[in-house]
Specification:
This protein is α/β, with parallel strands linked by helices. It has 15 helices and 20 strands. The strands form five sheets. The protein has an eight-stranded parallel barrel with strand order 1-2-3-7-10-11-12-13. A five-stranded antiparallel beta sheet has the order 14-15-16-20-18. Strands 4-6-5 form a three-stranded antiparallel beta sheet, with no helix packed on it. It binds alpha-D-glucopyranose and calcium ion.
Length: 558
Protein backbone atom coordinates (compact mmCIF):
# COMPACT_ATOMS: atom_id res chain seq x y z
CA UNK A 1 0.00 0.00 0.00
CA UNK A 2 2.78 2.41 0.98
CA UNK A 3 4.52 1.56 -2.29
CA UNK A 4 1.38 2.17 -4.29
CA UNK A 5 0.89 5.51 -2.60
CA UNK A 6 4.50 6.42 -3.29
CA UNK A 7 4.08 5.62 -7.01
CA UNK A 8 0.89 7.59 -7.09
CA UNK A 9 2.48 10.62 -5.45
CA UNK A 10 5.56 10.40 -7.62
CA UNK A 11 3.45 10.29 -10.78
CA UNK A 12 1.05 12.99 -9.71
CA UNK A 13 3.99 15.26 -8.94
CA UNK A 14 5.82 14.44 -12.14
CA UNK A 15 2.76 14.56 -14.41
CA UNK A 16 1.19 17.52 -12.67
CA UNK A 17 4.38 19.49 -13.06
CA UNK A 18 3.98 19.66 -16.81
CA UNK A 19 0.46 18.76 -17.88
CA UNK A 20 1.36 19.60 -21.49
CA UNK A 21 4.36 17.27 -21.62
CA UNK A 22 2.90 15.54 -24.68
CA UNK A 23 3.39 18.64 -26.84
CA UNK A 24 6.58 18.18 -28.90
CA UNK A 25 7.11 14.89 -27.12
CA UNK A 26 8.98 11.93 -28.54
CA UNK A 27 6.95 8.81 -27.84
CA UNK A 28 8.60 5.44 -28.39
CA UNK A 29 6.46 2.44 -29.27
CA UNK A 30 7.45 -0.88 -27.71
CA UNK A 31 6.08 -4.19 -28.92
CA UNK A 32 6.75 -6.04 -25.63
CA UNK A 33 6.80 -9.49 -27.21
CA UNK A 34 9.79 -8.42 -29.30
CA UNK A 35 11.78 -6.04 -27.10
CA UNK A 36 13.72 -8.14 -24.58
CA UNK A 37 13.21 -11.58 -23.05
CA UNK A 38 14.41 -11.96 -19.46
CA UNK A 39 13.14 -15.45 -18.59
CA UNK A 40 14.38 -17.21 -21.70
CA UNK A 41 11.07 -18.42 -23.14
CA UNK A 42 11.63 -16.66 -26.47
CA UNK A 43 8.99 -14.03 -25.72
CA UNK A 44 9.80 -10.51 -24.61
CA UNK A 45 8.42 -9.39 -21.24
CA UNK A 46 7.84 -6.36 -19.02
CA UNK A 47 11.06 -6.98 -17.10
CA UNK A 48 12.84 -6.79 -20.44
CA UNK A 49 11.56 -3.24 -20.84
CA UNK A 50 12.57 -2.29 -17.29
CA UNK A 51 16.05 -3.66 -17.93
CA UNK A 52 16.53 -1.33 -20.88
CA UNK A 53 15.11 1.90 -19.48
CA UNK A 54 18.56 3.45 -19.29
CA UNK A 55 18.94 2.94 -23.03
CA UNK A 56 15.63 4.76 -23.61
CA UNK A 57 16.59 7.56 -21.28
CA UNK A 58 19.87 7.93 -23.10
CA UNK A 59 18.02 8.01 -26.43
CA UNK A 60 16.00 10.89 -25.00
CA UNK A 61 12.40 9.70 -25.31
CA UNK A 62 9.69 11.31 -23.18
CA UNK A 63 7.32 8.39 -23.05
CA UNK A 64 6.95 4.78 -24.05
CA UNK A 65 3.74 3.37 -25.49
CA UNK A 66 3.60 -0.34 -24.79
CA UNK A 67 1.28 -2.39 -27.04
CA UNK A 68 -1.16 -4.66 -25.12
CA UNK A 69 0.28 -6.86 -22.37
CA UNK A 70 -3.04 -7.85 -20.77
CA UNK A 71 -4.24 -11.45 -20.53
CA UNK A 72 -5.04 -12.60 -24.04
CA UNK A 73 -5.32 -15.78 -26.09
CA UNK A 74 -2.77 -13.97 -28.33
CA UNK A 75 -4.65 -14.58 -31.57
CA UNK A 76 -3.81 -10.98 -32.51
CA UNK A 77 -0.80 -10.90 -30.16
CA UNK A 78 -2.52 -9.01 -27.38
CA UNK A 79 -5.10 -7.00 -29.33
CA UNK A 80 -7.60 -9.68 -28.31
CA UNK A 81 -7.95 -8.93 -24.60
CA UNK A 82 -9.63 -11.34 -22.18
CA UNK A 83 -9.07 -9.27 -19.02
CA UNK A 84 -8.42 -5.51 -19.06
CA UNK A 85 -7.12 -5.24 -15.53
CA UNK A 86 -4.32 -7.78 -15.28
CA UNK A 87 -1.04 -8.80 -16.92
CA UNK A 88 -0.64 -11.79 -19.22
CA UNK A 89 1.67 -14.27 -17.42
CA UNK A 90 3.71 -14.43 -20.66
CA UNK A 91 4.70 -10.84 -20.04
CA UNK A 92 5.03 -10.90 -16.25
CA UNK A 93 3.04 -9.92 -13.19
CA UNK A 94 1.36 -6.81 -11.83
CA UNK A 95 4.37 -6.41 -9.52
CA UNK A 96 6.58 -6.32 -12.64
CA UNK A 97 4.35 -3.64 -14.13
CA UNK A 98 4.46 -1.56 -10.93
CA UNK A 99 8.24 -1.83 -10.90
CA UNK A 100 8.40 -0.80 -14.56
CA UNK A 101 6.27 2.25 -13.75
CA UNK A 102 8.45 3.19 -10.78
CA UNK A 103 11.72 2.78 -12.66
CA UNK A 104 10.42 4.65 -15.70
CA UNK A 105 9.10 7.50 -13.56
CA UNK A 106 12.47 7.78 -11.80
CA UNK A 107 14.05 8.35 -15.20
CA UNK A 108 11.46 10.87 -16.31
CA UNK A 109 9.92 8.46 -18.81
CA UNK A 110 6.14 8.24 -18.93
CA UNK A 111 4.25 5.03 -19.65
CA UNK A 112 1.35 5.05 -22.10
CA UNK A 113 -0.86 1.95 -22.24
CA UNK A 114 -2.63 0.61 -25.28
CA UNK A 115 -6.42 0.52 -24.89
CA UNK A 116 -8.51 -1.62 -27.20
CA UNK A 117 -12.05 -0.27 -27.14
CA UNK A 118 -13.57 -1.62 -30.32
CA UNK A 119 -13.52 -5.30 -29.41
CA UNK A 120 -12.54 -7.85 -26.78
CA UNK A 121 -11.32 -11.40 -27.14
CA UNK A 122 -14.03 -14.00 -27.70
CA UNK A 123 -12.63 -15.51 -24.47
CA UNK A 124 -13.48 -12.40 -22.42
CA UNK A 125 -16.12 -13.21 -19.73
CA UNK A 126 -18.32 -10.44 -21.21
CA UNK A 127 -18.51 -12.19 -24.55
CA UNK A 128 -18.95 -15.63 -23.02
CA UNK A 129 -21.93 -14.29 -21.12
CA UNK A 130 -23.25 -12.36 -24.11
CA UNK A 131 -23.24 -15.42 -26.33
CA UNK A 132 -24.77 -17.71 -23.71
CA UNK A 133 -28.35 -16.72 -24.65
CA UNK A 134 -30.34 -13.93 -26.24
CA UNK A 135 -31.60 -12.84 -22.84
CA UNK A 136 -28.66 -12.57 -20.43
CA UNK A 137 -27.71 -9.22 -18.85
CA UNK A 138 -24.92 -8.75 -21.43
CA UNK A 139 -26.94 -9.99 -24.40
CA UNK A 140 -26.66 -6.55 -26.01
CA UNK A 141 -23.00 -5.88 -25.21
CA UNK A 142 -21.84 -7.01 -28.65
CA UNK A 143 -23.21 -6.48 -32.16
CA UNK A 144 -25.61 -9.40 -32.73
CA UNK A 145 -27.88 -9.79 -35.75
CA UNK A 146 -30.21 -12.38 -37.19
CA UNK A 147 -29.45 -14.15 -40.44
CA UNK A 148 -31.32 -13.01 -43.54
CA UNK A 149 -34.17 -15.09 -44.99
CA UNK A 150 -31.70 -17.44 -46.68
CA UNK A 151 -29.61 -17.91 -43.53
CA UNK A 152 -26.84 -15.65 -44.82
CA UNK A 153 -25.10 -12.80 -42.94
CA UNK A 154 -27.26 -9.65 -42.70
CA UNK A 155 -25.14 -7.70 -45.20
CA UNK A 156 -21.88 -7.55 -47.18
CA UNK A 157 -19.66 -6.01 -44.49
CA UNK A 158 -16.07 -7.18 -44.64
CA UNK A 159 -13.55 -7.76 -41.89
CA UNK A 160 -10.41 -5.62 -42.22
CA UNK A 161 -8.59 -8.93 -41.79
CA UNK A 162 -10.38 -10.66 -44.65
CA UNK A 163 -13.78 -12.13 -45.60
CA UNK A 164 -17.21 -11.55 -44.06
CA UNK A 165 -17.28 -9.54 -40.84
CA UNK A 166 -20.13 -11.71 -39.55
CA UNK A 167 -19.59 -14.93 -37.62
CA UNK A 168 -22.38 -17.40 -36.93
CA UNK A 169 -22.97 -18.51 -33.34
CA UNK A 170 -24.75 -21.85 -33.01
CA UNK A 171 -26.03 -21.21 -29.49
CA UNK A 172 -27.71 -17.85 -30.09
CA UNK A 173 -28.47 -18.73 -33.70
CA UNK A 174 -27.29 -15.27 -34.64
CA UNK A 175 -24.32 -13.63 -36.25
CA UNK A 176 -21.92 -11.36 -34.38
CA UNK A 177 -19.92 -8.59 -36.04
CA UNK A 178 -16.11 -8.45 -35.95
CA UNK A 179 -14.17 -5.67 -37.69
CA UNK A 180 -10.97 -7.71 -37.19
CA UNK A 181 -10.52 -11.47 -36.50
CA UNK A 182 -13.54 -13.57 -35.60
CA UNK A 183 -11.86 -14.03 -32.20
CA UNK A 184 -12.27 -10.23 -31.72
CA UNK A 185 -16.04 -9.60 -31.47
CA UNK A 186 -16.95 -5.88 -31.67
CA UNK A 187 -18.43 -4.32 -28.55
CA UNK A 188 -21.72 -2.48 -28.91
CA UNK A 189 -20.75 1.13 -28.20
CA UNK A 190 -24.39 2.19 -28.41
CA UNK A 191 -24.85 0.50 -25.04
CA UNK A 192 -24.06 2.83 -22.14
CA UNK A 193 -23.19 -0.09 -19.84
CA UNK A 194 -20.38 -1.07 -22.25
CA UNK A 195 -19.04 2.47 -22.23
CA UNK A 196 -19.10 2.71 -18.45
CA UNK A 197 -17.36 -0.65 -18.06
CA UNK A 198 -14.62 0.44 -20.43
CA UNK A 199 -14.17 3.82 -18.75
CA UNK A 200 -13.73 1.99 -15.44
CA UNK A 201 -10.91 -0.14 -16.83
CA UNK A 202 -9.24 3.06 -17.98
CA UNK A 203 -9.53 4.54 -14.49
CA UNK A 204 -7.91 1.37 -13.14
CA UNK A 205 -4.72 2.18 -15.12
CA UNK A 206 -4.92 5.94 -14.61
CA UNK A 207 -5.03 5.26 -10.85
CA UNK A 208 -1.82 3.28 -11.28
CA UNK A 209 -0.21 6.34 -12.80
CA UNK A 210 -0.06 5.62 -16.51
CA UNK A 211 0.39 8.81 -18.51
CA UNK A 212 -2.44 8.04 -20.89
CA UNK A 213 -3.56 5.71 -23.64
CA UNK A 214 -3.00 4.92 -27.24
CA UNK A 215 -6.53 4.13 -28.36
CA UNK A 216 -6.71 1.28 -30.81
CA UNK A 217 -8.80 1.37 -34.00
CA UNK A 218 -10.72 4.54 -33.12
CA UNK A 219 -12.63 4.86 -36.43
CA UNK A 220 -14.05 1.32 -36.06
CA UNK A 221 -16.18 1.92 -32.95
CA UNK A 222 -19.56 2.29 -34.67
CA UNK A 223 -21.48 0.66 -37.50
CA UNK A 224 -24.57 1.81 -39.36
CA UNK A 225 -27.76 0.98 -37.38
CA UNK A 226 -29.65 0.37 -40.61
CA UNK A 227 -27.10 -2.28 -41.62
CA UNK A 228 -26.90 -0.91 -45.16
CA UNK A 229 -24.69 -2.80 -47.64
CA UNK A 230 -21.35 -1.14 -48.35
CA UNK A 231 -20.96 0.08 -51.91
CA UNK A 232 -18.35 -1.87 -53.84
CA UNK A 233 -15.17 -0.27 -55.13
CA UNK A 234 -13.19 -1.51 -58.07
CA UNK A 235 -10.95 -4.53 -57.64
CA UNK A 236 -10.35 -7.39 -55.25
CA UNK A 237 -8.60 -7.38 -51.87
CA UNK A 238 -5.67 -9.60 -50.85
CA UNK A 239 -8.14 -12.18 -49.56
CA UNK A 240 -9.91 -12.57 -52.91
CA UNK A 241 -13.03 -10.55 -51.98
CA UNK A 242 -14.48 -7.52 -53.75
CA UNK A 243 -13.27 -4.30 -52.11
CA UNK A 244 -15.95 -2.45 -50.12
CA UNK A 245 -15.92 1.27 -49.38
CA UNK A 246 -16.54 0.98 -45.59
CA UNK A 247 -18.78 4.08 -45.47
CA UNK A 248 -21.10 2.24 -43.08
CA UNK A 249 -18.48 0.75 -40.77
CA UNK A 250 -15.66 3.26 -40.64
CA UNK A 251 -15.38 6.72 -39.06
CA UNK A 252 -19.07 7.25 -38.24
CA UNK A 253 -20.04 10.54 -36.60
CA UNK A 254 -20.95 8.78 -33.32
CA UNK A 255 -17.23 8.16 -32.70
CA UNK A 256 -16.85 11.79 -31.61
CA UNK A 257 -19.41 11.45 -28.86
CA UNK A 258 -17.36 8.64 -27.34
CA UNK A 259 -14.11 10.56 -27.75
CA UNK A 260 -15.62 13.43 -25.75
CA UNK A 261 -16.61 11.02 -22.99
CA UNK A 262 -13.12 9.51 -22.99
CA UNK A 263 -11.62 12.97 -22.69
CA UNK A 264 -13.91 13.65 -19.79
CA UNK A 265 -12.65 10.54 -17.97
CA UNK A 266 -9.04 11.45 -18.71
CA UNK A 267 -9.56 14.99 -17.45
CA UNK A 268 -10.24 13.57 -14.00
CA UNK A 269 -6.46 13.07 -13.84
CA UNK A 270 -3.89 15.78 -14.46
CA UNK A 271 -1.39 15.55 -17.31
CA UNK A 272 -2.69 12.46 -19.09
CA UNK A 273 -2.87 12.09 -22.85
CA UNK A 274 -5.18 10.43 -25.37
CA UNK A 275 -3.40 9.29 -28.50
CA UNK A 276 -5.51 7.80 -31.27
CA UNK A 277 -4.84 5.25 -33.94
CA UNK A 278 -6.55 7.25 -36.67
CA UNK A 279 -6.05 6.05 -40.21
CA UNK A 280 -8.14 8.64 -42.05
CA UNK A 281 -8.45 9.73 -45.65
CA UNK A 282 -7.43 13.38 -45.20
CA UNK A 283 -6.42 16.16 -42.82
CA UNK A 284 -9.94 17.55 -42.51
CA UNK A 285 -11.15 14.27 -41.02
CA UNK A 286 -8.05 14.20 -38.84
CA UNK A 287 -8.81 17.73 -37.59
CA UNK A 288 -12.18 16.55 -36.28
CA UNK A 289 -10.46 14.04 -33.99
CA UNK A 290 -9.14 16.87 -31.80
CA UNK A 291 -12.73 17.99 -31.18
CA UNK A 292 -14.39 21.30 -32.01
CA UNK A 293 -13.48 22.60 -28.57
CA UNK A 294 -10.29 20.62 -28.21
CA UNK A 295 -12.30 18.19 -26.15
CA UNK A 296 -11.53 14.91 -27.93
CA UNK A 297 -8.07 13.41 -28.60
CA UNK A 298 -4.89 15.26 -27.66
CA UNK A 299 -2.89 13.51 -30.32
CA UNK A 300 -4.66 11.65 -33.11
CA UNK A 301 -1.98 10.05 -35.28
CA UNK A 302 -1.36 11.63 -38.65
CA UNK A 303 -0.99 8.50 -40.78
CA UNK A 304 -0.67 10.46 -44.00
CA UNK A 305 2.81 12.00 -44.05
CA UNK A 306 4.57 8.85 -42.84
CA UNK A 307 2.68 6.58 -45.19
CA UNK A 308 3.07 8.42 -48.48
CA UNK A 309 5.53 5.63 -49.31
CA UNK A 310 7.26 7.70 -51.94
CA UNK A 311 9.98 10.30 -51.57
CA UNK A 312 8.12 13.04 -53.40
CA UNK A 313 9.03 16.57 -52.29
CA UNK A 314 5.70 17.95 -53.46
CA UNK A 315 3.71 15.36 -51.50
CA UNK A 316 5.77 15.79 -48.33
CA UNK A 317 5.44 19.56 -48.58
CA UNK A 318 1.68 19.33 -49.11
CA UNK A 319 1.18 16.99 -46.13
CA UNK A 320 3.32 19.15 -43.86
CA UNK A 321 1.42 22.22 -44.99
CA UNK A 322 -1.92 20.56 -44.29
CA UNK A 323 -0.79 19.45 -40.83
CA UNK A 324 0.19 23.05 -40.16
CA UNK A 325 -2.87 24.76 -41.58
CA UNK A 326 -5.81 22.33 -41.41
CA UNK A 327 -5.54 21.01 -37.85
CA UNK A 328 -6.77 24.25 -36.26
CA UNK A 329 -3.41 24.91 -34.65
CA UNK A 330 -3.42 21.61 -32.79
CA UNK A 331 -0.26 19.60 -32.32
CA UNK A 332 0.25 17.06 -35.13
CA UNK A 333 1.55 13.60 -34.26
CA UNK A 334 3.74 12.15 -36.98
CA UNK A 335 4.83 8.52 -37.32
CA UNK A 336 6.68 6.62 -40.00
CA UNK A 337 6.87 3.22 -38.36
CA UNK A 338 4.71 0.91 -36.28
CA UNK A 339 3.90 -2.75 -35.68
CA UNK A 340 1.35 -2.95 -38.51
CA UNK A 341 3.36 -1.76 -41.50
CA UNK A 342 6.52 -2.64 -43.32
CA UNK A 343 9.35 -0.59 -41.82
CA UNK A 344 9.84 2.81 -43.42
CA UNK A 345 13.30 2.00 -44.73
CA UNK A 346 11.72 -0.68 -46.91
CA UNK A 347 8.97 1.67 -48.10
CA UNK A 348 11.20 4.69 -48.81
CA UNK A 349 14.67 3.16 -49.36
CA UNK A 350 16.14 2.86 -52.86
CA UNK A 351 18.53 0.06 -51.86
CA UNK A 352 21.56 2.25 -52.62
CA UNK A 353 21.21 5.25 -50.32
CA UNK A 354 19.20 3.65 -47.53
CA UNK A 355 21.39 5.03 -44.78
CA UNK A 356 20.95 8.64 -45.97
CA UNK A 357 17.24 8.06 -46.56
CA UNK A 358 16.79 6.79 -42.99
CA UNK A 359 18.41 10.00 -41.72
CA UNK A 360 16.17 12.06 -43.98
CA UNK A 361 13.12 10.36 -42.47
CA UNK A 362 14.44 10.89 -38.95
CA UNK A 363 14.92 14.58 -39.78
CA UNK A 364 11.45 15.04 -41.23
CA UNK A 365 9.97 13.23 -38.22
CA UNK A 366 11.82 15.20 -35.57
CA UNK A 367 12.17 18.77 -36.82
CA UNK A 368 8.68 20.08 -37.74
CA UNK A 369 6.29 21.51 -35.14
CA UNK A 370 4.87 18.17 -34.06
CA UNK A 371 5.01 15.38 -31.55
CA UNK A 372 6.73 12.30 -32.86
CA UNK A 373 6.15 8.57 -32.61
CA UNK A 374 9.06 6.21 -33.01
CA UNK A 375 8.96 2.42 -33.24
CA UNK A 376 11.58 0.24 -31.54
CA UNK A 377 14.55 -0.48 -33.80
CA UNK A 378 13.78 2.41 -36.16
CA UNK A 379 16.67 4.29 -34.54
CA UNK A 380 19.00 1.41 -35.45
CA UNK A 381 17.92 0.83 -39.04
CA UNK A 382 16.21 -2.50 -38.40
CA UNK A 383 14.61 -3.77 -41.60
CA UNK A 384 11.46 -5.74 -42.43
CA UNK A 385 12.08 -9.47 -42.34
CA UNK A 386 9.04 -10.85 -44.17
CA UNK A 387 8.54 -14.63 -43.89
CA UNK A 388 9.28 -16.55 -47.08
CA UNK A 389 7.25 -19.69 -46.24
CA UNK A 390 3.64 -19.70 -45.13
CA UNK A 391 4.39 -22.33 -42.47
CA UNK A 392 6.65 -19.83 -40.67
CA UNK A 393 3.97 -17.13 -40.43
CA UNK A 394 2.75 -16.15 -36.94
CA UNK A 395 0.36 -13.31 -37.76
CA UNK A 396 -2.97 -14.92 -38.82
CA UNK A 397 -3.61 -12.44 -41.66
CA UNK A 398 -0.41 -13.74 -43.24
CA UNK A 399 -1.93 -17.20 -43.33
CA UNK A 400 -5.40 -16.07 -44.41
CA UNK A 401 -4.01 -13.86 -47.15
CA UNK A 402 -0.87 -15.76 -48.29
CA UNK A 403 0.84 -15.02 -50.63
CA UNK A 404 -0.70 -11.60 -51.38
CA UNK A 405 -0.83 -10.62 -47.71
CA UNK A 406 2.14 -12.01 -45.77
CA UNK A 407 1.17 -10.52 -42.43
CA UNK A 408 3.03 -8.27 -40.01
CA UNK A 409 5.75 -10.57 -38.67
CA UNK A 410 8.39 -8.77 -40.73
CA UNK A 411 8.19 -5.54 -38.72
CA UNK A 412 7.95 -7.33 -35.36
CA UNK A 413 11.30 -9.13 -35.21
CA UNK A 414 13.36 -9.06 -31.98
CA UNK A 415 15.05 -5.82 -30.99
CA UNK A 416 18.72 -5.94 -31.97
CA UNK A 417 20.77 -5.21 -28.84
CA UNK A 418 24.17 -6.68 -29.73
CA UNK A 419 25.79 -9.33 -31.90
CA UNK A 420 25.47 -12.21 -29.43
CA UNK A 421 23.13 -15.14 -30.06
CA UNK A 422 19.56 -13.92 -30.65
CA UNK A 423 20.94 -10.37 -31.05
CA UNK A 424 20.96 -10.07 -27.25
CA UNK A 425 17.16 -10.32 -27.21
CA UNK A 426 17.66 -12.87 -24.44
CA UNK A 427 17.67 -16.53 -23.62
CA UNK A 428 18.93 -19.52 -25.49
CA UNK A 429 15.42 -20.40 -26.59
CA UNK A 430 14.52 -19.49 -30.17
CA UNK A 431 12.82 -16.08 -30.18
CA UNK A 432 9.17 -16.14 -31.27
CA UNK A 433 10.22 -14.55 -34.58
CA UNK A 434 13.63 -14.91 -36.23
CA UNK A 435 16.18 -12.15 -35.65
CA UNK A 436 16.69 -9.84 -38.65
CA UNK A 437 19.62 -10.81 -40.89
CA UNK A 438 21.52 -7.53 -40.39
CA UNK A 439 21.82 -7.82 -36.58
CA UNK A 440 25.61 -8.22 -36.55
CA UNK A 441 26.11 -4.62 -37.62
CA UNK A 442 22.71 -3.05 -36.96
CA UNK A 443 22.46 -3.19 -33.18
CA UNK A 444 22.66 -1.02 -30.07
CA UNK A 445 26.12 -2.15 -28.93
CA UNK A 446 27.84 -1.58 -32.27
CA UNK A 447 26.05 1.67 -33.08
CA UNK A 448 26.60 3.18 -29.64
CA UNK A 449 30.35 3.02 -30.31
CA UNK A 450 30.24 4.50 -33.81
CA UNK A 451 29.97 8.29 -33.57
CA UNK A 452 28.31 8.51 -37.00
CA UNK A 453 25.83 5.68 -36.61
CA UNK A 454 22.12 6.10 -37.29
CA UNK A 455 21.50 5.60 -33.57
CA UNK A 456 23.75 8.54 -32.72
CA UNK A 457 22.07 10.62 -35.42
CA UNK A 458 18.69 10.02 -33.74
CA UNK A 459 20.17 10.82 -30.33
CA UNK A 460 21.64 14.09 -31.56
CA UNK A 461 18.39 15.05 -33.28
CA UNK A 462 16.29 14.36 -30.19
CA UNK A 463 18.72 16.28 -28.00
CA UNK A 464 18.74 19.18 -30.43
CA UNK A 465 14.96 19.35 -30.61
CA UNK A 466 14.88 19.59 -26.82
CA UNK A 467 17.67 22.13 -26.43
CA UNK A 468 17.17 24.44 -29.38
CA UNK A 469 14.57 27.09 -28.71
CA UNK A 470 13.50 27.43 -32.34
CA UNK A 471 13.01 23.68 -32.77
CA UNK A 472 11.12 23.60 -29.49
CA UNK A 473 8.87 26.58 -29.88
CA UNK A 474 9.34 28.10 -33.30
CA UNK A 475 6.66 28.49 -35.89
CA UNK A 476 6.92 26.13 -38.86
CA UNK A 477 7.26 27.90 -42.23
CA UNK A 478 7.94 26.19 -45.56
CA UNK A 479 10.52 27.78 -47.85
CA UNK A 480 11.61 27.09 -51.45
CA UNK A 481 8.10 25.95 -52.25
CA UNK A 482 8.74 25.57 -55.97
CA UNK A 483 11.67 23.20 -55.57
CA UNK A 484 11.18 19.72 -56.96
CA UNK A 485 14.32 18.38 -55.37
CA UNK A 486 14.72 19.88 -51.90
CA UNK A 487 12.27 20.03 -49.02
CA UNK A 488 13.09 22.92 -46.73
CA UNK A 489 11.49 24.89 -43.97
CA UNK A 490 12.41 27.12 -41.08
CA UNK A 491 11.46 27.09 -37.45
CA UNK A 492 11.32 30.69 -36.38
CA UNK A 493 10.60 32.37 -33.05
CA UNK A 494 9.07 35.82 -32.60
CA UNK A 495 12.43 37.44 -31.96
CA UNK A 496 13.46 36.61 -35.57
CA UNK A 497 15.77 33.76 -34.65
CA UNK A 498 15.51 30.85 -37.06
CA UNK A 499 16.69 27.34 -37.75
CA UNK A 500 16.83 26.14 -41.36
CA UNK A 501 16.08 22.52 -42.22
CA UNK A 502 16.84 21.25 -45.72
CA UNK A 503 16.63 17.76 -47.19
CA UNK A 504 17.65 16.56 -50.63
CA UNK A 505 15.00 14.18 -51.97
CA UNK A 506 17.10 13.01 -54.91
CA UNK A 507 20.15 10.84 -55.58
CA UNK A 508 21.99 13.81 -57.18
CA UNK A 509 23.81 16.49 -55.18
CA UNK A 510 21.78 19.71 -54.95
CA UNK A 511 22.89 23.30 -54.42
CA UNK A 512 20.27 25.63 -53.00
CA UNK A 513 19.72 28.94 -51.32
CA UNK A 514 17.08 30.08 -48.88
CA UNK A 515 15.56 33.53 -49.10
CA UNK A 516 14.38 34.69 -45.69
CA UNK A 517 14.35 38.42 -46.42
CA UNK A 518 10.56 38.63 -46.23
CA UNK A 519 10.35 36.65 -42.99
CA UNK A 520 11.96 39.10 -40.62
CA UNK A 521 14.88 36.75 -39.96
CA UNK A 522 18.14 38.43 -39.11
CA UNK A 523 21.42 37.14 -40.52
CA UNK A 524 22.81 35.18 -43.48
CA UNK A 525 25.43 32.97 -41.94
CA UNK A 526 24.53 29.42 -40.95
CA UNK A 527 25.94 27.54 -38.02
CA UNK A 528 25.61 23.81 -38.62
CA UNK A 529 23.64 22.12 -35.86
CA UNK A 530 23.42 18.73 -37.50
CA UNK A 531 24.09 17.20 -40.89
CA UNK A 532 23.48 13.66 -42.07
CA UNK A 533 26.69 13.74 -44.11
CA UNK A 534 30.33 14.30 -43.15
CA UNK A 535 32.19 17.53 -43.80
CA UNK A 536 29.23 19.94 -43.88
CA UNK A 537 30.75 23.38 -44.38
CA UNK A 538 29.49 26.36 -42.41
CA UNK A 539 27.48 27.72 -45.32
CA UNK A 540 25.41 30.83 -45.74
CA UNK A 541 21.79 31.08 -46.79
CA UNK A 542 22.87 31.56 -50.38
CA UNK A 543 25.02 28.46 -50.65
CA UNK A 544 23.81 25.21 -49.15
CA UNK A 545 25.04 22.02 -50.80
CA UNK A 546 23.39 18.72 -50.08
CA UNK A 547 24.73 15.33 -51.20
CA UNK A 548 22.33 12.56 -52.32
CA UNK A 549 19.43 12.43 -49.83
CA UNK A 550 21.44 14.64 -47.46
CA UNK A 551 19.76 16.39 -44.53
CA UNK A 552 20.96 19.63 -42.99
CA UNK A 553 19.91 21.59 -39.89
CA UNK A 554 21.50 24.97 -39.24
CA UNK A 555 21.03 28.02 -37.04
CA UNK A 556 20.81 31.38 -38.81
CA UNK A 557 23.36 33.67 -37.19
CA UNK A 558 23.37 37.44 -37.37
C1 LIG B 1 -4.86 -1.95 -34.56
C2 LIG B 1 -3.56 -2.54 -34.09
C3 LIG B 1 -3.35 -3.84 -34.81
C4 LIG B 1 -4.48 -4.77 -34.46
C5 LIG B 1 -5.83 -4.12 -34.76
C6 LIG B 1 -6.95 -4.87 -34.13
O1 LIG B 1 -4.83 -1.63 -35.90
O2 LIG B 1 -2.51 -1.64 -34.29
O3 LIG B 1 -2.12 -4.41 -34.50
O4 LIG B 1 -4.36 -5.97 -35.16
O5 LIG B 1 -5.92 -2.82 -34.28
O6 LIG B 1 -6.96 -4.68 -32.74
CA1 LIG C 1 9.98 -13.94 -21.65
Amino acid sequence: MAKLLATFLLCTLAWGADPDWWRNAVIYEIYPRSFADTNGDGIGDLNGITEHLDYLKDLGVDAIWITPFYPSPQVDFGYDISNYEAIDPQYGTMADFDRLMREATKRGIRVVNDMVLNHTSDQHPWFKESKSSRKNPKADWYVWQNADAKGHPPNNWQSIFGHSAWQWDEKRKQFYYHAFYKEQPDLNWRNQAVRDAMYDTMRFWLDKGVAGFRLDAVPSLFEDVQLRDEPYLEGMDAYGERIVSRVYTDNLAEVHEVLRELRHVTNEYPGRVLIGETYLPNSLELAKMYGKNQDELHLPMDMQLGFLNKLSVADFRRKLFEAETQLNGNMPLFAFDNHDNMRSVDRYGDGVHNDAIQRLIATVLLTPRASALMYYGEELGMTTNTPTRVEDVQDPIGRIGWPKEKGRDGERTPMQWNNDANAGFGGTHKPWLPVGPNYKTVNVAVESKEPDSLLNYYKRLIKLRKENEQLREGEFVLTNEASETVLSYIRVTRDGKAVVVAMNFTSQPQAMSVDLSSRGVKGRHLKTLLASFPGAKEPDLGHITLPAFGSYVGQVEP
